[in-house]
Specification:
Layout: E1 2-11, E2 14-23, H1 30-39, E3 49-57
Antiparallel strand pairs: 1-2, 1-3
Length: 64
């Protein structure tokens, strides 16, 4: 199943937003998706504050 993942980070007055689609397998967790997104953060954002995180199924209403 695919998930639309959005993560916004803040560090030293700078912001970065990761907006990606991730494939997840049964048994994967939201925490796993968060860690995946953190690995996609730009250089220099190690240890940044998480401002926003969302991981939702990448489906339109009515799709299965």
């Amino acid at each position: 199943m695919e998930f639309h993942v959005i993560l916004t980070l803040a560090k030293d007055g700078q912001y970065a937003t990761i907006n990606r689609v991730a494939a997840a397998q049964p048994g994967n967790t939201r925490n796993g998706l968060l860690n995946w997104a953190l690995q996609k953060a730009p250089e220099g954002f190690e240890g940044a504050n998480i401002v926003f995180f969302s991981a939702e199924p990448n489906l339109l209403r009515g799709e299965q």
